[in-house]
Each structure stands twice: as C-alpha cells, then as structure tokens.
Amino acid sequence: MPNAMPNAMIVAPQPEAVEAGALVLMKGGNAVDAAMACALVQGVVDPMMCGIAGFGSMQIYMPKRGVHRCIDFHGRSPAATRPDMWQDLIAGETRDGFGFILAGNVNDVGYQSITVPGSLKAYWEAQTEFGAWDWRDVVAPAIKEADAGFVVKPHVHFFWSQTDQLGRVANPDRLRHTPAGRRIFCDAGGNSHGLGVRVPMPDMARTLRRIQADGADVFYTGAIAQEIAADMARHGGLVTLDDLANYRTTRVDPLWGSYRGLKLATNNPPGGGITLIQMLNILENFDLAALGHNTPEYIRIVAEAMKCATSDKDAHVGDPAFVDVPVARLTDKAYAKQLADGIRAGRKAHVARVQHAKEPADTTHIAVVDRDGNAVTMTHSLGMPSGVVTEGLGFMYNGCMGVFDPRPGRAGSMAPGKSRYSSLCPTIVFKEGRPHLVIGAPGGALIAVGVLQAILNVIDFDMDMQNAVSAPRFAATSNAIDVMNRIPAYVTDELAKAGYPIVRSPLSYGIAAVHGIRVDGRRLQGGADPGHDGMALMV
Q1: How far, in Å, CA of 26 to CA of 13, rounded?
Q2: Where are the beta strands (DSSP E) in 201-281?
Q3: Three-class DSSP category at 23
Q4: What is the C-alpha to C-alpha distance for residues 535 and 530, in angstroms, rounded to an integer?
Q5: Is 221 a catalytic residue?
Q6: Which of the residues 375, 397, 455, 463 could staple to 114 if both were Cys, CB 3.0 to 4.6 A apart?
Q7: Under 8 Å CB-to-CB from 44, ≥6 apart: which residues?
Q8: Distance between CA atoms of 116 and 199, rounded to whole angstroms?
Q9: What Rg value do the Cα atoms of the chain yield, rounded?
Q10: What is the mean pLDDT of residues 275-300?
C-alpha cells in the first residue's frame, strides 16, 4: 500500500458510532482509536446488540509497525459450569445450529445465561497498545452519547419489538427482565420505548466515567467488578469475582486462506473464519460468474458449500483449548475439491438438527481504514442478550451460555473457562499484498455465510462495496435454504423442484448485515448494509 492514503474511512451499523469514529480520524487518531471509540458508542446507542459486557473478535493490521494480529475476546463459561448441568432440560436446537432451547430458558435469559465478558478488556488492550490517543479521549464520545441519551432508531426498534422467537424469550421481555433494565428501556407501562424516543442513560454515563478514569481494571478487578460479583451472587448467577479477575483475551496470528489468487486473513476457532475459508475453498472449484448471480444453479452450489461447512463445523469446531480442531484438514484445498466434486455430481449434504427454531442476530461490526493504511475489522456482540442489568451500572450483559451444547462430550459442550463457536469472522482480503476488502458482519449464526456472499459479489462479480453488501442473500445452515424476499420466487421454485425446502423471509434485507470497505489502489469504497441503520463515512 502507498505510504499514505488520501482519505480514511469508517463503516458501522450505527450512525452516531460512525460519526464518533470519523471525528477521531479527522483529529489525528488512528484506525484503532477510531474503532474503539466507535465500539464504545455502539454500546450506548445499540445496547442490546453490544457493549462492555459482551464478546467478539478483532483483526488489527498496521503495516508500518509490522503488526498483524487478531485479538479474540470470546465470552468464557464461568468456573462453576458443569458439562451436564442442563442436559435434562433440552427442548430443541435452533434450525441454524447455533443455540439450544432449554426448559425455563435458563440458558437464554437471566443471571445463569451470562458468560465472563471480554469486550472491555479487548477495547482497552487494543487502544492502549496500538492506538495513538489517550484512553480518556477515546472513551469521551461514548460518555457524551450516554449523557444526552440515545434515540431509538428503526433497526433498534425492530429488534426490540421482536416477539416470535420460536422458543426463545421475546425481546420485550428481555428489556424488562430486571428492574434496572425496565427503568432504562421501558415506559411507565412496561412497554419498550418506541421509534424516535430519546432514552436517558445516566447509569451508563457514570459507569463509563469510572472506566475512563481507571481503565479496564475497574471492571475486572476493581470496584465495578465487586458490584458485578455481588449482584451475581444475590441472583444465582455463575460469574464470580475470580472469573472476572482471571479473564484473558487471546492473541493469535490470523488464520490464512486464499481465493482465486487473493489471500485472506481471518480469525481462528472458535471464531467463524475457518468456516469462511472452507466455503471459499469449495467454491473456487466452480465458475460462479458464468452461472450468473443468484441463479438457481448458483444458489444450489453455494448453498451446498454452506451445508458442507456447517456439518464440519458442528462436528469438529470448538474452543481449541478444549477441542482438537482439525484446522489443516478443514482448510485443505484437496478436501474442498472432494466436497465440490460431490456438489457437482448433485449430492446433497445433510445437516442434522434437533428441532427448528430461529437464531437472533444480536451483534454489530466496525471496519476502519486510516490514511496510513492501518486497518481494523471487529465484530462484537452480546450474543442473545441476557436481559440482566445490574442496578446502578446501566449496561446489559451477554447471554452466551445459550450457544453451548448442553449435551456432554461434544465439540460445543460446556466446560469451565470454555468459549463456544461463534460465526464472527472479521476478515481482510489482500490483493498484491495490500488490503483489498476489510469486511465483517453482525448476524448470529449466519455471519460467515453473509460475509461469504459479499466477498463473492466483489471478487466474482466485481460489485462495488455498497452493491456487494446490498444484494439479496440466502443461507443454508440446515437442510432448508433460507432466502430474503428480494430473491424472486421463479428462482426458488426451481430449487423447490429439485427437492430443497425453501424458507422465504418477509424481509428484504437479512442473512447477516455485512459492512465493509473496498480498497482499490488509493480509492476507498464503503458499504453499509441497508437493512440496518448505519453508514460509511470518508474523511
């Protein structure tokens, strides 16, 4: 990449967060400063999607400093976790295979659904090690937003209003699960605030001021940690003070793959990068451009690649500290060719599921490229938000225990200190040794298949970034093919005739919400998924 870019760019699903990051870039902060400022604001203005008590994965590329690292900050199950503690409560599995329905929803909402959070630790470590600004200045935009209160935007309102969770707790009930949450997110009648309402966040502002002054230590070993642990103990939660104090992020080199002569760097297990690489390896064996975008045969081939990778993920991918993940085999080009040969011959992969249900998409993303060619891509989340807000702290905790497999002896089974597979896959695609795509997405279990399609749209169909993230998507993480409503019925009718169950969404946009930046030489293109509220800003 040239020594300097003429511009910098940031893209994310929340406009206030994008603006905060853009202002950091305008005032001389680097990509890491901008990304962390953006992330902290996201936790204020979209507080059920992400926050300081969440989890995620980020990739940092700083060529002048010789830095290219992933910081993974997945939620870890508390030390009190037992592999068999919920095996008698199983009512079903989500259709996309990313979570279980238990009797009483004990893993889904409430204090026992919370894993040890990693987000704030990762924000702090990334900014203080790789940023150019003072931590206090990076936190300041989030405090400003919390002081002012955030306005409920269309996608926030849509998400808050969802009640048909097919076995999971309805989102309005999550908002009012605790008295503290009810006071923040609901009106006097207990109903979630409506579109356009400004929601005061005084407790969040006070918490952020404490974090601004004392860094992440106050949350993990200091006074806030004491308050968290006491609240957990009062309400039967699993997270303890020792769990918070013992939390560590994971620093690793990126997991590398290639597609049609381009290299890509993504995250390692238990993240979704391995699934993304495997799907691309399979699809490299087909001339997708010749098939035409979203034609019946194109959808069939890509869907089968998704199914193959999903089956392998279900069987083999988990926390590498607990599971021997066959990374070399799953990312092997020869193995992918075998799978591709089966797809070409008409073979249908089978993805076993306990029961059908829907996975919420409670996640958000940031992509930044600065003038020095530094790039950050980060996906962070609350998973299925727990509904728990500790009195006086103002933030909601993750609900990541819901994605563990309550059946002992499996790759995704529970164990103390373990992280569960997540589809998060913040990715950088390189062309001639320089970043070409800086990309990622929110979207629950469907993140990897959403990011896959945007990458194909750029590489195989030469779409600009906005068109690449806006084109209608589909997913096959079960034996059915889910399609967004902008894919014509005359296309899916052909797939139905071939024996594929088709599940048509009433929505025009979905299957993750991909956000990215395309770099062509010294030119930047931003793309923000139109199904969410965000934007791309060039500065």
Answers
A1: 20
A2: 250-252, 255-259, 262-266
A3: helix
A4: 8
A5: no
A6: 397
A7: 142, 145, 146, 150, 201, 204, 208
A8: 27
A9: 21
A10: 98
**Ordered structural domains, the chain, with CATH:** 9-251+362-403 (no CATH), 252-358+424-538 (3.60.20.40)
DSSP string, 146-176: HHH-EE--HHHHHHHT----TTSPPHHHHHT
- State whether the Cα torsion 513-434-429-131 is positive or negative: negative
Query: Does the pLDDT at position 18 exceed 50?
Result: yes
- Residue 530's identity, in one-letter code, is P
Q: Which residues, other chains included, contact 251 with Cβ-Cβ below 8 Å and sequence gap of 6+?
A: 69, 70, 71
Residue 442 to residue 457: CA distance in whole angstroms: 18
pLDDT in tens, 86-137: 999 988 776 545 578 888 888 989 999 999 999 999 999 999 999 999 999 9
54: closest CA among 319, 321, 385? 385
Burial group, residue 222, by CB count within 10 angstroms (0-12, 13-18, 19+): middle
Q: Residue 177 in contact with residue 110, Cβ under 8 Å?
A: yes
How far, in Å, CA of 141 to CA of 11, rounded? Answer: 17
Catalytic residue among 81, 249, 331, 363: 363
Q: How far apart are CA 185 and CA 224, in angstroms?
A: 22
> If you average pLDDT over residues 241-250, what whole number do you get?
98
C-beta separation of 257 from 281 below 8 A: yes
The overall longest dimension of the chain from CA atoms, in Å, is 62
The answer to whether residues 420 and 318 touch, using CB atoms and an 8 Å cutoff, is yes
Residue 79: how many CB atoms within 10 A of its CB?
A: 14
Question: How many Å apart are CA 166 and CA 179, to the nearest integer?
Answer: 25
Look at residues 362, 381, 373, 382 and name the one whose alpha carbon lies nearest to residue 517.
Answer: 373
What would the pLDDT profile of 357-375 be if each residue is shown by its tens digit? 344 456 899 999 999 999 9
Q: Residue 298 has which token pair?
A: 């194109």
pTM: predicted TM-score of the whole model, two decimal places: 0.95
Residue in the structure block whose two tokens are 């597609």: 259
pLDDT for 522-538, tens place per residue? 999 999 999 999 999 99
Q: How many helices (H) and strands (E) does the chain have?
A: 19, 20
Note whether 22 and 539 are within 8 A (CB). Answer: yes
SS3 content of the chain, % helix, strand, coil (to 5): 40, 20, 45
Going by C-beta distance under 8 Å and a sequence separation of 6 or more, which residues neighbour residue 27? none
* pLDDT value, residue 359: 42
